[in-house]
Amino acid sequence: MIPISISYYSFQSQQISNAGAKEFAMRLEEAVSHGKTFKISELTSLDWDKIYVFHPYVSKSDMEEITQVSWTTNHSYFGYLLDRMFLGKYPLDDDSLNKLVFTKDGRVVLDVTLNRSAADFSTIQEIWHDKEPLLAAGEDGKSVVISNL
After folding, report:
1. d(CA 68, CA 107)
2. What global pTM score does this model have?
3. What is the pLDDT of residue 88?
4. Of 2, 52, 78, 84, which residue is least crowded by CB atoms under 10 Å?
5. Residue 98 in contact with residue 120, Cβ under 8 Å?
């Protein structure tokens, strides 16, 4: 019973609500498709202090090592266990996926997996701290680049 209790406590402490992920993804896709220059903060009311950009094939353990945070977006303990043991080791297991992870005070507040056909961050390697760059749609209308404006 003790291992289950410890595991369940871990699940509870790592769980994030991920509220606003769909809304953010829609706003981002709209901004990119219209070719606007934008800042991420204009697309979400979320309070964050760092944004991490993860490219295809980055493992969950690598993400947690880079961010120094363990988190889950699962809302069920069973789903959390499946991810930890089998399914979630490579959440970006396809060339078509990238992920933005927002943190505030050392905790993940938003985890957004994006299809690169909607918004492709593959040319951006940075981790943004407080001050974010001006972004724009690339010439292909899908890639996201740092604007020189």
Report:
1. 9
2. 0.84
3. 64
4. 2
5. yes
